[in-house]
Amino acid sequence: MTVPMGPDATSQDILCPYCLEIISYDEQRLFVRDDKQMFEELRVDRRISPLRLADTLRSAYQRCGSSEDGQAHYIPVPYLTNGAPLTVAMVGDSATGKTHLLTQMIAEIADGGLKRYGLQMQSVNPQDHQTFMSERVERLRSGEMLEHTRSAGEFAAFVDALLLSRHDGTARPVAFFDLAGEDLRRTDALTRFMVGVDALIFVVDPLRALPMPYLDPLRGDLGHTRGGDPAFQTVLDRLPRTSGQYLGVAAAVVINKSDLVRFEPPVDRWLAEPPPDARLAERFAEESRDAYAFLRHHTGQAWAAPFDSVLRCTLHFASATGSHDHEGRFPHGTRPLRVLEPLVSVLSMCGLVDDSAADGATVVGW
Fold first, then answer.
1. Alpha helical stretches, state H, 18-147
2. Would you call 240 helix, strand, or coil by DSSP?
3. 232-267 burial by CB neighbour count: b if 16+ within 10 A, else e?
4. What is 167-181 written as a DSSP string?
């Protein structure tokens, strides 16, 4: 990857993924991290070779201009200089498994899981991505349960950013956010952030949603009770309605922890399905019909609210770990099942998956 310089790099205005203020590439606001992970100013020397300059900027950050008025925040330079960014936010209350799900999604992307759809991946910032891989992915793959999403205070919890590029050279940064349940219950905390989100992945927890009696012992052990997820409606109420009575964002609803109900039809069928290589719209529509019918048969309307409210929305069965933890660990390791399909769906809706790899971005999400 090369970092664009000159007019192309300085003329693009984007939204800061933290505060949603307008920001554009500015060489006078650049920083790098020192050995103690503290930010220090970077002075760009135009006399060095273009290759060395690009490598330097690959690991550089730009301080957002609104930092003077609030919490300081820094955006990786490649996020500002590689096409229009796409923001994806995970939505769900605490303990729904959304942190594990997002971690496994990014892990599968790092393993080349999007190549079958014509997308290549690079990290937006190598240091941040390596930290994510070591502190999150490697721990989860070794069988260690990750802690719940902590409140990020003033901003939504940024997780990682990847640069996804198509064969035609089109590249877009994709930033992932994990919205903490307690943050979503503070009605004024994320209002501005939600206005700028491009795609949402709503995470359904079977222990809260499904009435199967064989789930009761596990519910009791974890202190879970059945009921709706307040995070769903809170987010849906904040989003602008740009398509008539419907919300204009791209969205996917994921019935996570589907391994807990793996023998229920049609869950048994879909957990055994391999990743789709073609005819994505047809496959996603079929899975969405089955998942919607499953939810409406076993739960109230609230769990299907995103599908009823969002114009472009698909539904999926998945499991981030393949089994339930025992005393904070997964003794047999983790085995993610169909974790990438919901993300592929929203990437299709947002135009990142090439038409040659699917039936067309506009027909995914019915």
1. 50-58, 77-80, 98-110, 126-132, 138-141
2. coil
3. bebbbebbeeeeeeebebbbbbbbbbbbbbbeeeeb
4. TTS-EEEEEEEE--H
3-state secondary structure of 273: coil
Are 345 and 316 in contact by the 8 Å Cβ rule? The answer is yes
User: Which residue is it, tokens 């950013």?
Assistant: 161
Alpha carbon distance 356, 139 (integer Å): 36
Q: Are 201 and 343 in contact (CB under 8 A)?
A: yes
Lowest mean pLDDT among 172-186, 262-276, 320-334: 172-186
Return d(Cα 364, Cα 248) in angstroms, integer.
Answer: 14
The proportion of the chain whose per-residue pLDDT surpasses 70, expressed as a percent, equals 87
Distance, in Å, from the CA atom of 190 to the CA atom of 19, rounded to the nearest integer, reads 10
Strand partners, 22: 15
| Confidence check: pLDDT of 55 > 60 | yes
Mean pLDDT of the chain: 85
CA nearest 323: which of 243, 249, 261? 261
Q: Is the peptide bond before 266 cis (omega within 30 degrees of 0)?
A: yes
pLDDT band at 133 (very low <50, low <70, confident <90, very high): very high
End-to-end CA distance of the chain: 35
Burial class (CB in 10 A: 0-12, 13-18, 19+), 291: buried
CA atoms of 143 and 173, how far apart (whole Å): 30
pLDDT in tens, 270-300: 999 999 888 899 999 999 999 999 999 999 8
Share of the chain above pLDDT 90, in %: 52
Q: Write the CA distances from 13 to 5, 107, 193, integer angstroms.
A: 15, 30, 17
Secondary structure (DSSP) of 85-119: -EEEEEE--TTSSHHHHHHHHHHHHHTTTTGGGTE
* Bridge partners, residue 23, by sequence: 14
The average pLDDT across 108-116 equals 96
Secondary structure class of 243 (helix, strand, coil): strand
Residues 284, 345 contacting (CB under 8 angstroms):
yes
Q: List, for residues 64-86, the tens digit of each pLDDT value.
A: 987 666 678 899 999 999 888 99
